[in-house]
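Record filed here:
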Amino acid sequence: MKRTAAWVCVLLTILISATKTIHGQGNLGAITGTVADSSGAAVPDLPLTITNVETGVKWPATTSSAGYYRVAVPPGTYRLEAQKQGFKTEVVDQILVPVAQVVTVDVTLQVGSQSEEVEVASATPLLTPSTAEVSSSVSPQEFETLPIEVGDGGRQLQTFIFTSLPGTAGGTFSGSINGGQLFSHEILIDGVTIGRYDLSGGSLDEFSPGTDSIGEFKVQTSNYSAEFGETGVGIANFSYKSGTNDFRGSF
């Protein structure tokens, strides 16, 4: 009997930990794509290195048997490097990954010496073929330069969303996405649910973080991933600014 109870406790701990991990991934984006040689043949089992250019943190990856790779990363700017014997080192720089967005970066290796390097700058895609999600994202540059309404003693994040982005209506206390009920959308900050549950979610209000602490955000309106399972209306997905190797601040 004691052994059964112990196993139940272990299973509950695993389930709780897994649930926390899933919720914590809500703001993560991803870099995905295929690696091929100049003839178009897939390059399997190829080690890749993905580096955040602001922090220097690295994410290793390996292509599958079909030359496919996918790496989940926090929002930021990245550099991808691919090396293989008999081919030039391929580098893709300035890969911008917005909050909760999948970015496709396909790589083509050129025959040559590994000491030779081919470097290209990633262009921001107009479409995201890796997902069917419909959403509106605001980059850090847009967030810093666009006017944000001041109300109740501070600059309000949700007021900005619900008065400027398509498919939304409302304000800081209550808002509607795609014509849904008030207080029915999900609010995430770095993947953590922060909506007021006494109102069934959908209100930041007194829990609102300072606008200077937010790096970027995205309003996901439809066809979003199954990991966002606590709403059928939409998601206001915020991401805090992360530290970098350079000093910065505001006053």
